[in-house]
Each structure stands twice: as structure tokens, then as C-alpha cells.
Amino acid sequence: MAPKSFSFPGIFPALLASSLALLLLPTPIIAVHDYHDALRKSILFFEGQRSGKLPPDQRVKWRRDSALRDGSTAGVDLTGGYYDAGDNVKFGFPMAFTTTLLAWSIIDFGRNMGPELKNAVKAVKWSTDYLLKATAKPGVVYVQVGDAYSDHSCWERPEDMDTLRTVYKIDNAHPGSDVAGETAAALAAASIVFRSRDPAYSRLLLNRAVRVFNFADKHRGAYSSSLHAAVCPFYCDVNGYQDELLWAAAWLHKASRKRAYREYIVKNEVVLRAGDTINEFGWDNKHAGINVLISKEVLMGRADYFESFKQNADGFICSILPGITHPQVQYSPGGLIFKAGGSNMQHVTSLSFLLLAYSNYLSHANKAVPCGERSASPALLKQLAKRQVTILSFFTTLCLFVVISR
């Protein structure tokens, strides 16, 4: 089986954390940890994972066109997108989450990415072009291309693969609110990235996000119930689909500013369990991300009706501070965040991203987080995130070398 520690949900936030580390280092880097190089390599990783017809400006020159008939067995065009990990499978759920977070990093911190910003934007578009294909038919979302079992039993380059390219979808009779909700979130977040860069494309993304969200909300259910044999145990939804509905609504609110999404969020906060498992954030659990994202509105002083989300975000921050005992979050002797379960790096990197994002929001509002007798300042959150990124910079370089050199 392909090593899931190298999968998008694990690798991708390393891009975010590495890029955001530039915030912490306003002067030229003369140190052991070259965050600019880590950022470059992290984005380059996406080019090594591209599927389909490669563009002339492809920087990973030894990668060639592959999977040019994806979707043909179902009568649709599903070429493009990204392969997952060392797999040749295209898993829609983690790919969409990857896209959402990459878009978020560009929205909040693109100005700190320097010359890599254009490559980060291209990485988003490579995914959204595919997600548009996967959602082209109303009431249907194509969520996976490739049979994971046959793929994982044959370790080969995508250019040479001869394994099954089975197509899997969700529809009205076979719902998947989790993957559809995440896809809607990705399209909505990306619409913000392209709002000034390509207005027509931005409108297309937002309109599609609205349609996919309506489908996800109307036909509720977990995609791992509809497609258990295909997606489990690889990206089986353990956490439920409720968080993805709120997550998508939050991004649609941010992208469209429509009152309907604000009302949806407020109305469904308790029903869809916004306050659950707030100390976790990843492809299967969006709760901490929901609360941090929405809290920006409160900290800017224009959304008091979202105050409970800020309280949840504050609780998230307090739950992961070193020295505060919490059963779900621990630290290694070297200071690395540790959460029980597989692929620990996905937790470290995604939580580090949220620390930096929330630190930025708090700083602009001149606020700190009260944690009992302690107070978590924006500077403290940046310091904690920087420590995680410093440790991860070595891991990122190592795993990128292993994956891209396979």
C-alpha cells in the first residue's frame, strides 16, 4: 500500500506552513532553515503529481503526459487533476481539501510568497480545472478515478500504468455531502483567488460552488456509505459530513457575501456541530478551520452574530498550547505536536497553518486569547508555529525527495 504519510493531506499543509514562515522572517534568511527553498519545493511537488496533458511550462521535465483517457469508461472527460501520494489514483476528497487550503494560503499570505505566488496560483487552477470537469453534470460529482486496490499492488509510474481506471461518482441516490461539500468549498475559495486575476473564471467557480453545495445539502449522507468498497480504508469519512457542509457555507459566505449563507451558518451551528473536536483539522475534520475562518469576521468587528465561533477558535488555541494538558494534543521531547493516529505530519502542518492564520487575525484586531491564567498573544502563536515549521522543513525536503524521485 502506498505510504499515506506522503499523501496530499500530509504533504500539502507543509506548503502552507513553509510559505507562512516567511511572515516570521522579514529579513533575508541566513540560517540553516531555508524557508524560501522549502516553499519552492513544496509547490514543485504539485507539478510532480500532475495527471493529464502537461503544459509547456511544466518544470518537472521528467514527468510526461499520463491518464489521457480518464473518465472515458463513463463517457466523461476526467483528465487532469492530481495523483495522490505515491498512488496513481485521483481521490477527490483530499484533492479538494488540498485546493481549499492552498487557496486560503494565497488569499491570506500570497503577498509573502514572492516569485512562487504565480506557481501557487497555477497549482490551484490545475485542480479547479479538474473539479469543474468532475462537477459538470448537475446532481453528480465524480469523486475518484482509479481502483485503489489494484493500484496499490503495482508500484509504477503514471506514464506506464496499466491498472484499472475505474470511475466512481456520487449522485442523488448515492449521496456524499462530505466530498461534495469540500468540493464546493474548494471552488468557492478558489473563486476569491481568481477574482481579480480572471473575473470570468472566478464567476464560473463561484456559480459551480453554489450548485455543488446545494446538491450536498439537499442529498445528505457520507460518501463512504455510498462508495464504501472504493474509498475505505483509504479516505473513509470517519468524522461525518456535517462539518463539510458548514465549511462550504463559510467559504461561500466569504466568496459571495450573501446573507443566505450567513443565516445558514448561524441556523446550523449546533445541528452541524461547529464546536465538535475543535483541536483537529484535516481532510476529514474541518471543525477548527471553520471556527478560525469565521472568527476573522468577529475580530474585524463586523459579525457579532458569529461570536460563538470565535469562542470555539479561542478554545482551539488553548487546547494546543504547550503546558496545557489535553488528551488529544501532546508534544514530542523535541517540541513537535503529536496526535494519536497515522500521518502525524498532516496534523502538525495544518494546525500550524491555523496558528499563523489566527495569529494574523488577532494581530490586526490587537487581541490575544485568554487561556485561564495564561494569555496567548499573536507573537506566541507565531513562535509556536515557527517551531513546528522549523522541524518540518527537514521532513518536507526528505519526503519530497522520496516521492518525486520514485
Task: Set out the fold topology.
Elements: H1 8-24, H2 35-48, E1 90-91, H3 92-109, H4 117-134, E2 140-145, H5 148-152, E3 167-171, H6 177-193, H7 199-218, H8 223-226, H9 228-231, H10 242-256, H11 259-268, H12 287-299, H13 307-319, E4 330-331, E5 337-338, H14 344-365, E6 369-371, E7 374-376, H15 378-404
Give the helices and strands as they follow along the chain: HHEHHEHEHHHHHHHHEEHEEH
User: Ends: how far apart?
Assistant: 15 Å
Average pLDDT across residues? 87
**Could you name the ranges where pLDDT drops below 50 across 5 or more consecutive residues?**
1-7, 9-31
Work out the strand percent. Answer: 5-15%
Structural class: mainly alpha
- Roughly what percent helix? 40-55%
CATH architecture annotation name: Alpha/alpha barrel
- How many H/I helices? 15
Spatial sequence of strands, sheet with the most strands? 1-2-3
Radius of gyration: 20 Å
CATH topology: Glycosyltransferase
